[in-house]
Amino acid sequence: MTELRTIAEEFGLIIVEDAAHAFPVRSDDGRWTGTSGKTGVYSFYATKTITTGEGGMVVTDDDRIAARIRTMRLHGIDRSIWDRYTSSRAQWGYSVVEAGYKYNLTDLAAAIGRVQLKKAGAFLTRRKKIAAAYTRVFRGIPELEIPTSQGEHAWHLYILRLSHGSRVSRDRLIESLRQQGIGTSVHYIPLHLMPYYRDRYSFTPENFPNALDSYSRCLSLPIYPKMGDSQVDRVIRAVENGLKAE
């Protein structure tokens, strides 16, 4: 982020930092992820490091951008709906000044988020412990490539990648894990494989060979704060068994 900020300042660019997977760790410049650019975006979906069930948040230190977001998040209305009923100078009138959206987080979801925020440090500690347990075992298996990080890592995901010399395909390993009762996912399917982009732009899978290669060898293992040590061990054993499958 330090290098990106330098480039942005030199050329008058605005950085919008996607921190959907990164909370609550800090960037190389010592700032919380999501606060190094002009704006930062967080996701609080159910699978994220803290959750409100659905929704997210944008942060900025620019008053002009903040005002724009407040307007656009709720139908393009020029004042807070709540303020119409609570202000000492409450007025019923309001104006729609932009073609806005319905992007506001509900008060109930925000209340859940405030409680989750207090637990974010403990959640991160547990995710780090799970990731370390996986890495201790998987780094010694030649058929696997493990995730690495040069700085702090939120461990929102733990993605294994099969080596090119693996006898077992990614899909075969996923099926083996499923049969052993272990749910996995793939993050992510390249956009050029999606029907909309494929058909609109006449893409073929080979148009983006590096994305296709990584995608075809990756799978994401379970990692979440309430995951017990015995469950972690069970996942490890299941991966080891899956790699032995014919």
Record keyword descriptors for this entry.
246 residues; mainly alpha; Aspartate Aminotransferase, domain 2; Aspartate Aminotransferase, domain 1; 8 helices
Describe the protein's topology:
Elements: H1 2-11, E1 16-18, E2 39-43, E3 56-60, H2 63-72, H3 83-86, H4 107-138, E4 144-145, E5 158-162, H5 170-179, H6 195-201, H7 209-217, E6 218-221, H8 229-244
Parallel strand pairs: 1-2
Antiparallel strand pairs: 2-3, 4-5, 5-6
Helix pairs in contact: 4-8, 5-8
Folded structure, characterized:
There is one protein chain. By secondary structure, the protein is mainly alpha-helical. It has two domains: 2-112, Type I PLP-dependent aspartate aminotransferase-like (Major domain) (Aspartate Aminotransferase, domain 2), CATH 3.40.640; 121-244, Aspartate Aminotransferase, domain 1 (Alpha-Beta Complex), CATH 3.90.1150. It is 40% helix and 10% strand. It is built from eight helices and six strands. It has helices spanning 2-11, 63-72, 83-86, 107-138, 170-179, 195-201, 209-217, 229-244, and strands spanning 16-18, 39-43, 56-60, 144-145, 158-162, 218-221. The strands form two sheets. Strands 1-2-3 form a three-stranded mixed beta sheet, with helices on one face. A three-stranded antiparallel beta sheet has the order 4-5-6.
Give a quick rundown of the structure:
The protein is mostly helical.
